[in-house]
Amino acid sequence: MSDDEQAIRAVVDTWLAASQAGDTATVLSLMTDDVVFTVPGREPFGKEMFAAASESLKEMRMEGASEIVELQILGQWAFIRNHIRIAITPPGGKVQRRSGYTLTLLRKEADGKWRLARDANMVTQES
């Protein structure tokens, strides 16, 4: 496994651990400043809106797992096809389970770190 592949896998692992810990600052540090998220049912959004949405979820408990299905490095860009399963529990509420695939583009920035640049998230509510 190349150093770049190890670094990209570390981004995924760190993102998941920080999300579960409610560590929004760490998650934001894993994104480019011009990141774009695409999710069903809403207009694409960037880092600022992601941060605001994350703050509104701080009271919820989140557990999850991700499996990288495909990872390709193409120079200073890479993509990941990933399968995610998450469980979100609001305070005193019922667990909401979601799962699905994401297609994520990462960019190696001037500091040598890989960061998430584009993300198409197809995770939906499990029935």
UniProtKB/TrEMBL annotation:
SUPFAM superfamilies given in the database record: NTF2-like
The protein's name in its UniProt record: DUF4440 domain-containing protein
Species in which this protein is naturally found: Phyllobacterium myrsinacearum
Superkingdom: Bacteria
Pfam family for this entry, one: DUF4440
Signal peptide per UniProt: none
InterPro entries: DUF4440, NTF2-like_dom_sf, Steroid_delta5-4_isomerase
Domain DUF4440: 8-116
